[in-house]
Amino acid sequence: MNYTEYTQSKFNVDISNIVAQVKASYITYDCIAGIKRGGLIPGVVLSHQLGVPFMSFDIEDQDGPRYQGEKTLWVDDILDSGKTMQHVLQMGGDCAVLIWNVNQHIKPRYYGRIIDRKFEPKWINFWWEHPYLMEASKVWV
Questions:
Q1: What CATH topology corresponds to 3-140?
Q2: % pLDDT > 70, the chain
């Protein structure tokens, strides 16, 4: 498979960029909702760095976050086709993504880096999805 590596170094840079953007916006969020599964790790990190409570959100959960009606920051690893983010943004709030594919119709309020799938069609292999981590995780179960 043709892919590109998304390393911890890239992750750290992108999280720092998103934190700076959120702080510069002067918007206060009541909840950071990490969209399962790709948004969980960046969501937890943003929660710690911004001092905002975190919750996980499964796209199959039609009820939305427990903080419904409050200011939610939805977090995902990549805004690629836009389908997931379109669904969750109907419940209100803003979104932050590590990687924004500009070749779709939704613009996130906050993002770490930009790609264009027309010119960068490679699969992105996020560091937390790396095969050696998957093998190591079997020991924990």
A1: Rossmann fold (3.40.50)
A2: 84
Give the whole-angstrom CA distance, residue 29 versus residue 139: 37
φ/ψ of 88, rounded to 5, equals -75, -30
Cβ–Cβ < 8 Å for 100, 114: yes
Separation CA 54–CA 41 (nearest Å): 11
pTM: 0.85
The pLDDT of residue 2 is above 60? yes
Provide the pLDDT for residue 29.
95
CB contact at 8 A, 22 and 75: no
Tell me the CA end-to-end span of the chain in Å, nearest whole number.
28
